[in-house]
Each structure stands twice: as C-alpha cells, then as structure tokens.
Amino acid sequence: MFDFDALAHSIVSQTVLCVGDLMLDEFVYGEVSRISPEAPAPVIAVQRSETNIGGAGNVARNIASLGARCIFVGLIGEDEAGTKLKAQLSQQSLIESVLVCDAARPTTRKVRFVSEHFSTHMLRADWEVAAPAAADIEQKLIDAILPQLARADIVLLSDYAKGALTARVIRNVIDTARKLGKRVIVDPKSANFAIYRGATLLTPNRKEFAEATRSRADTEASIAEAAQDAMQLADCEAMLVTQSEHGMTLVTRKGEAIHVPAHPVKVRDVSGAGDTVAAVLAVTLAAGADWETALRMANAAAAVAVSKKGTAIVTSAELRRKILPHAFLAAEEKIIAAGSDLDARLQDWRKQGLRIGFTNGCFDILHPGHVKVLTAARGACDRLIVGLNSDASTKRLKGEGRPVQDERARAEVLAALEAVDLVVIFEEDTPIQLITAIKPSVLVKGGDYTREQVVGHEIVEAFGGEVLLVDVLPGFSTTSLVNRARGGKA
Fold first, then answer.
1. Residue 448 neighbours by CB under 8 Å, 6+ apart
2. Cα(482)–Cα(488) distance, integer angstroms
3. DSSP codes, 87-121
4. Domains in the chain and their CATH numbers?
5. Which tens digits make up the pLDDT trace of 312-366?
6. Which range (41-45, 67-71, 333-337, 362-366) has the least confidence?
7. H or E stretch including 30?
C-alpha cells in the first residue's frame, strides 16, 4: 500500500549520487520522400533537430524532474560535445555535476535520424571510444566520487560500457557505499554480474539478463529461477528484469517474485526508457518505498517515457496521472450500475493484467475514516471499485431518516476522490453478488471488522485473493455525525 502524494513529498528531500557514462543525444527529425540518386539510400529532408543530455546524464535529468537532488559524476572529452554537456548540466538547478575531462577520448555522442511521419529511427551515428578509462583518469573519477557518498541517500551506477565505470571504479564505489550504509542500484551493461558484487539491486533488461545468466528468460518462472543464482553471484538483495512490452519482473533473495504488466501505451520512442526506470527506482527506494511500490512506480514511469519522442524525462505530475488515471476523469464518468458497463471495464482491466480492489459501504456522510480506508485500499491495487448501497438498501440497513444524502450525491462525492476508480451502486443489502461478479484480487474493509465478518471473504480467498483490514480512525462515525447534526447524542 502506498500514498502517491506522501511518497512524492518525501522524494523531494532525497539526494541521489549518480555515476556513469555521460553522452550527448542528438535527434534529427525530417521527412523521407525519395531515394538518393547517388546510392540506394533514403534522403531525409531535415525539418528540426534537438540536443539532450543522454546516457547516465539522462538518469540525472529524470531524478531532478521528479524533484530529488542529484550529484552527478561523469566523463567528458575536450571537445564541442563536452562543452555543450557541461553547459546544459549547469542549467539544471537540481543537478550538481562533477565532470572529469579525458583529453584522450571524445565525448560520447549519438545522432539519431528519425522519420517524423513514421516516428521511426532510420540511422544512428555514434562518436565514441568504448574502452575503459586510463589509470590516471580512473583515479580522478574515484577521487571525485568517494567524497560525495556521505551526502547521498542512495547511489546509482548507470553503466553504458563507454569506459567511466571500470571494474576498479565500481569496486571502490560499492565497497565504500556499503561501509557507509548506502544502498546501491546498478543499471548494468557487463554480462559478468560479479563485477557489481555487493550492490543492492541490479536492473538488467531481458536480453542482458539472458546473456548474463545463459538462460532463456522468456517466462516469469524462468526469470525467477535464473535470478536466484545471479543474485548469489552478485551478492545483491534483488534483481529487476525489464521486458519492454511484457512488463517487469522483480525477484528478491528471499524468493519473492513480483511481476507487473506493461501499461498499454502507444510507443513513440524507447530511447532512455531504462534511464527513467533506474531514476524512479532510486528516488522511490531512497524515499522509503518497499520493493513492490518502487516497481509499480518505475513501470508507470517507463510507460510515460516511451510515449514521448526523444530522450525523455518524466515529471511527478505525469507519473501521478499514469498511476491514478481515473483521478482525472469527471466524477460522472466513474459512476456506473452493475451489468454490462461493469463487465466491459473489468474485461479491459484484466486484459492489462491490473490488480483490482474492492470495498463497499453506505458512505452517507464521508468523513476522514472513510478516506483513510479508501486511500489504503487504492494503495493495495491498480484499480479500486467502490460498491455503494442504494437509497433503498441504506434505509433497510440504517433505518428511517437514512440516508441523509441520496445515492447520486453519495456516488458523486466518492467519485470525486482520486483514490476511487469506479463507483457501482447496488440494490441488495450486501455486496455479495457484486463481489462474485468482480472477483477482486483484494477485498478491503475497516479494522472494526474481523476477516470472518467481511462479506465475500470466502469468495475472494477461494480464487486466491486477499482480505485487507485497515485500522480505522477513532472518533469518526457517520451515525454519530448524523445524531450530532440532529441535536442528539453522539
């Protein structure tokens, strides 16, 4: 369970030390309408171009775009690309850059030529020396990094195999970080995970993971099995395998495996999506999130990143919109009756592999106790459905004079809460039929109930769901509020 706003608020007080391969990303956009008469190659009529901080620098940009501070250490050459990167990083108020200059190598630069109409990459040109930094440069990097470790809440190594993260640099950073009690996340490039030994979390993509573990890594089960040996080799606490449109799988040393499906989005550009994932994992874990929360946040951020052109950053507002999409619907769009409309929503959510939660009540006068239960319920699932007793069933349950507000008013107040994705009004005294139809993964009620008292608990548990009881806030009761308003005793 997590509260997005509370987590976002905590993120802004975190500092991430990011070390890795810095590069200049350039995108040249244009239209292709003919083949060159000089050779069988398409001709791109350039319309515009843009330059971004790329590689590990894009990780730093994403950390800053989410509101956290970033201390960034990277490597540049004595050239125009290096000068551009230094200038662009200096303009980032939340990024403190410490750049080591290596006159013997060019700054890594990638130029991508993109068809504007088809949004496809036609060609990429690279300027780079993909070799480990020389011993003297390596020592300069170590001397630049180690004094910064004490200031960081978490450390992130972004390895693009361009030479900044040599085996010696990696070893010095991880060993010193561990002595200081700092967690280390690694976005690895080497197929030898042993060089990252002692890191907290490794985040390879499926191809990198398959090569490193010599496994097919084509199912959740095969990833979970191969990850155990890999984690033992790397002496890490967890392994996150990103799988593009197939989502992400997180495996911990304790044997826990969590898979989240990818959000359905129109993919415009995958450049830098891995950077976004690493950045979100770093800031959320630093802010105190558990593994599953960090995973879900990173998965949502990846969906935002790939829906943008170029090397993209993700803001907290964009992430919030992706995680709480129904918070931005008009209240009336969230209110439905049981039947075909509900079936269609459920079918769509299940296709996406989303975890569906359910809670219910009369919610006659919404109070802080209700809000706490609803917020906790939403934190335990991807989509929350609230079953609302109709006016007739509320009267039968609560007696004459109730409800105070009619069902439409109560539904609109509930639907206005961003924690609520759907409100379904039901006529029966209990939501047993609704629960049977929905088959939620999690059934939530206030802690003033026992598990056995929760209507539908046996149905939910029969198909592998769970019952979650949330501690209630003392002193809040709709009945007592109504009595006080009518001049009676609470």
1. 472
2. 8
3. HHHHT-TTEEEEEEE-TTSPPEEEEEEEETTTTEE
4. 4-323 (3.40.1190.20), 325-485 (3.40.50.620)
5. 899 998 898 888 766 556 677 789 877 667 888 898 888 878 899 999 999 988 8
6. 333-337
7. strand 22-35
What are the φ and ψ backbone dihedral angles of 80, each rounded to 5 degrees?
-65, -40
d(CA 31, CA 473): 61
276 within 8 A of 314, measured Cβ to Cβ: yes
Torsion of CA 475, 476, 481, 483, to 10 degrees: -50
| Nearest-angstrom CA–CA distance, 4 and 11 | 10
Tens-digit pLDDT profile for residues 72-106: 999 999 999 999 999 999 999 999 999 999 999 99
Q: What is the pTM of this model?
A: 0.72
Q: Tokens representing 291? A: 């593994």
Closest to 437 measured CA to CA, from 337, 361, 364, 353: 337
How far is Cα 399 from Cα 417, in angstroms, rounded to an integer? 27
The one catalytic residue among 102, 159, 187, 275: 275
Reported as type and span, the H/E element at residue 231 is: helix 220-234
Contact criterion met (CB below 8 Å) for 180 and 149: yes
Q: Is 208 annotated as a binding residue?
A: yes
Sheet strand arrangement including 335-337: 335-337, 422-426, 383-389, 356-361, 442-446, 466-470
Whether 452 has a binding-site annotation, put simply, is no
Task: Give buried/exposed letters for 387-425 (b at 16+ CB in 10 A, else e).
Answer: bbbbbebbeeebeeebbbbebeebbbbbbebbbbbbbbb
E runs forming strands in 36-166:
42-55, 69-76, 95-101, 108-115, 120-127, 154-158
SS3 188: coil
Known catalytic residue at 275: yes
Other beta carbons within 10 Å of 350: 12
Q: Is 408 annotated as a binding residue?
A: no
Give the dihedral sign, CA 444/450/455/459.
positive
In tens, the pLDDT along 222-233 reads 999 999 999 999
Q: How far apart are CA 262 and CA 322, in angstroms?
A: 12
pLDDT given at position 490 = 47
DSSP string spanning 377-409?
Answer: HHHTSSEEEEEEE-HHHHHHHH-TT--SS-HHH
Q: Show the tokens assigned to 60.
A: 């730093």
